[in-house]
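Quick check before the chapter quiz. The format below is the same one you will see on the exam, so make sure you can read both the input and the output lines.
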Amino acid sequence: MGETPLTRARVLAAAEDVLRRFGPAKATVVDVAQALGVSHGSVYRHFASKAALRDAVLRGWLERVSTPLQAIADGRAAPPRRLRHWLTALRDAKRGKASSDPELFATYGVLAGEAREVVDEHVAGLIGQIAQIIEAGEASGDFRPLEASAAATAILHATARFHHPSMAQHWSGSGEDAAFEMLLGLLLQGLLVPSR
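Here is the expected output.
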């Protein structure tokens, strides 16, 4: 039986494991290569630098957050319900990652601080998804006319306490769920076409 070929996916999986074990300050490309049983040159055939490898690991993690959110944005639920579901799913995804694997969550926080371009792409994607829901709400007559991208940016910023990794220490506090529900109600009220 032949040797399993070295693929980008295998390198990324090994890099994630190495980052979890050693942390971002100590993890090296050599550690990733050793975990795979290959030379570090083999890793560099897939990723030009340590920074490129770390960016790819972060991008993969962020895609695992944003892909299910895109499915919600593409859904057929009424836009107010869809927006509520999307914001709740974003909060729950970040909370889940922080509680299920706190070491890796902290590692991703460090990587995100080093990879502004990757984070900016992710944030732009999230804003685009919210804007998509707002545009659907305008088309259905549920939401009042707005500049969708500006409104989406404001919504993402307004809800940051509940999903931005730097706020994770607050997520288990009492009253967080009630505060989140209050904020969702206020945001949706501001978007809805006023009833006559």
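If your answer matched, good. The first helix runs from residue 8 to 22.
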